[in-house]
Specification:
single chain; alpha+beta; Creatine Amidinohydrolase, Chain A, domain 1; Creatine Amidinohydrolase; 5-stranded mixed beta sheet; 17 strands; 33% helix
Length: 392
């Protein structure tokens, strides 16, 4: 059940008249999570749930799915035809003018822009002003409970061991002369996830050059490269505990299949590391000093560091993303490139900081997770300081 009183307090603070939830065929997972509905069961007809800043919530459901919102409090309205739906919506929204929905102006934050344009038009036709629920979502969906933080740390301890083991597997295959492909190493990591109670929506990445120059390279059976001596090996690993409500841990490390890391690799890693550390320090100092910052500002710090080193055009993605029950969560992203994410970084949220430089010959990325509470920000796992030479 949602904490109606807490939501109403936030609505009043934001000078909003209410928060309107709408769904059809489970298109809006945010609505399901905030309202505690789950994502199972039929949802073949449109439903609406309105939480006003003051007073009792109201719900509108179809007659053949009348029980859809019975777990939620509030007055129930029922419709069958579209005319009845249009006639009843004004009653649902009576007394309101400014309403939050899962809407993002110009779809600037696609994670939030889940309500279709036609439904937004319908609400606006009723003389309502529709604004983005992005900040409300951060508070009530992207913010972690203490139990979720512990699930993140637990997953992190396992993933750090898997990462170390994967580098050892690669080194052993090279030393013993046994062929090992990127895909086979990926599958080895997935096996370790399963044996340790971790799950992931998408498999991890194992990439040697030039594939590590592609930020979203996916090893595929029969198409991936052999891991050989002299290769630069990038591992991007994310997973979460196989329990309801658990949240992800997501890291990227790089190792070198040799005794001494070549200078060109070491140089690019130092530039990436500096950008990562400057962004982390900016967040830490801002939180310690109670300074409000936005996602795009964190991106700017990392991006400017890489630009000054002369590699700005090779940093082709945002600095980081929100982390939650999905690996790409619904809180503020560290993004001033793909979008200008102007959401404030708020307590009890977590995000990645993962700058990278992607050259035609090879790519390097370093990724850590940063958790923020009321008074401090911290990296939640081990921090890579140099490329790991994997052969003695």
């Amino acid at each position: 059940m949602p904490d109606i009183h807490a939501i109403q307090a936030e609505l009043k603070a934001a000078k909003l008249d209410g928060w309107l939830f709408y769904d059809h065929h489970h298109r809006d997972p945010i609505a399901s999570r905030v309202l505690g509905l789950g994502e199972d069961g039929m949802a073949t007809r449109r439903w609406f749930y309105y939480i006003p800043a003051r007073g009792e919530p109201r719900k509108l459901v179809h007659r053949i799915e009348q029980g859809m919102l019975d777990s939620l409090g509030g007055r129930k309205y029922v419709y069958s035809g579209w005319e009845e739906l249009h006639k009843t919506l004004p009653k649902l929204l009576s007394g309101s003018r400014k309403i939050a929905m899962q809407y993002s102006p110009e779809n600037n934050i696609p994670y939030i822009g889940l309500v279709d344009a036609g439904t937004v038009e319908l609400i606006r036709k009723l003389k309502k002003t529709v604004v983005s629920s992005a900040d409300l979502v951060q508070k009530f969906e992207a913010s972690w409970s203490p139990e979720q933080l512990e699930s993140h740390l637990e997953a992190g301890r396992i993933i750090d061991r898997v990462r170390q083991g994967a580098f050892e597997q690669a080194a052993a295959s090279v030393s013993d002369g046994k062929p090992l492909t990127e895909f086979e190493l990926q599958q080895w990591m997935l096996d370790r996830f399963r044996s340790n109670g971790l799950v992931t929506a998408e498999p991890p990445i194992a990439a040697v050059q030039p594939n590590n120059g592609n930020p979203h390279y996916e090893p595929r059976q029969g198409e991936s490269r052999l891991i050989r001596a002299g290769d630069l090996l990038l591992l991007d690993i994310w997973a979460k505990s196989n329990r309801p409500g658990s949240v992800y841990y997501d890291i990227t490390w790089v190792g070198y299949l040799g005794e001494r890391v070549p200078d060109p690799y070491a140089k690019i890693f130092r530039i990436v590391r500096q950008a990562r550390d400057r962004a982390v320090d900016f967040v830490k100092e801002s939180v310690t000093n109670s300074k409000k910052i936005h996602g795009w500002e964190v991106d700017r710090v990392a991006r400017e560091s890489i630009r000054k080193a002369g590699y700005g055009k090779y940093f082709v993605h945002r600095t980081g993303h929100s982390i939650g029950q999905d690996v790409h969560g619904n809180g503020a992203n560290m993004d001033g490139l793909e979008t200008k994410d102007d959401r404030k970084i708020v307590p009890h949220t977590c995000f990645s900081i993962e700058p990278g430089i992607y050259l035609p010959e090879f790519g390097i990325r370093s990724e850590v997770n940063v958790y923020v509470d009321e008074h401090e920000a911290r990296v939640t796992g081990a921090i890579q300081e140099e490329i790991l030479p994997l052969l003695a």
